[in-house]
Amino acid sequence: MKSQQKSRWSTTLLGLMVVLFTLALVVYPKEGFEAGLGGMKLFWHTVFPSLLPFFILAEFMLGLGVVRGFGVILEPLMRPLFSVPGIGAFALSMGLAAGYPMDAVITARFRQQNLCSRVEGERLLAFTNTADPLFMIGAVAVGMFKSPEIGALLAVAHYISAFLVGVSFKLWGRRVEQADHDENPVAPVPAGTPHGTSAKRGNLFLRAFHEMIAAREEDGRPFGKIMRDAVVESMQTLIMICGFIVFFSVLIDVLRVSGLIQVIGWPIAVVYHVFGIHSGLVPPTLAGILEIDVGTAQAAAVQAAPMLQKLALVSAIIAWSGLSVHAQVASVLTETDIRMRPYFLARFLHAAFAAVVTVVLYALGMGHVAATMASSLPAFAAAQTMTGQLPWWHVMEASLDLWLLLFALLAVLSVALWVVRKIRVVAWRV
């Protein structure tokens, strides 16, 4: 009875909100059209060319078994740190290179192919939902703040906080896993290794090769069909993302011109007043809750607010990623059993960690140090030279460089851990 009443109230509330939004579009048709056009331009000039190649490449790697092969190599790194299979490194690296919502697309594909359990998918989605460095350094720092050092600071804080979220979610769902183990006394084959090859002893790279071949044979599709499926599924996902971007762009602008955003934001204004945060950051906070680009741009434009407060807010908005990205992730996960509740919890935790880490790094004067360290990476160096928006082929080149660098680093760390483990076993036998 309580669940039925709750469902009725939520349906009534959502219906009322939809009616009010429709009436607002009738009252402000010009503003709604211009906001929708701006969202479409953002998608066409930035999102579409930057995400489409990564979506297609991800489908290729899954179909050809490359992901399962890398998963065997990276299992010794990802399993102890985050309690996820080694293929999680692929979602992490692709999310880092392409940004939102690439990690959700990869994680959903893992779950559909039974390469991870539901709990492991939720853990993986918790810390791989990251922004790409070109957005933080190029668009936010150079484009909005006119300072590459700020971009390096935001990027370092963003990835440190994502790592903290991953470690924090290591114990997520342990009771569910224990209950499944109690129901099935026979130890299941680790997720991501359907044939159990990664669980056997032997040469690490040889096992990875065998797993890749086994995955390719299991898929069985010819190369032409893999290419067709990759393009079709990628285009469908991108069209869905385009719809969400346009919708939330219109929603934010209608709330702004109608004055409703001031009414909705009064609780945040009270909290900001209590903690001594500048009142001019209330509208950017509300905009950032809905959409990441609008929120960061508005926060950077508040001239009277202290720089530290603006940086902490921008860092939290980037980590939160906005309800627009959340809606995209939810739509991608509809064909899986991965729940959105842990994802929301992880985003809130990521935002809190990012704000705190940004304040600490700023207080320690780490902005210039982070910029010096980051300038040695190809993607960071390309973003620092931005005076406007980079052409899409430059974005792709820098993102691919960073993706390959991260994947190589993860592989080296995983092999190092495997070697240390072998040495310990040999020493114990001796």
UniProtKB/TrEMBL annotation:
This is Sporulation integral membrane protein YlbJ. The keyword Amino-acid biosynthesis does not apply. Keywords: Membrane, Transmembrane, Transmembrane helix. It comes from Alicyclobacillus cycloheptanicus. InterPro entries: Spore_IM_YlbJ. The chain crosses the membrane at residues 12-30, 50-74, 81-100, 150-169, 230-252, 345-365, 402-420.
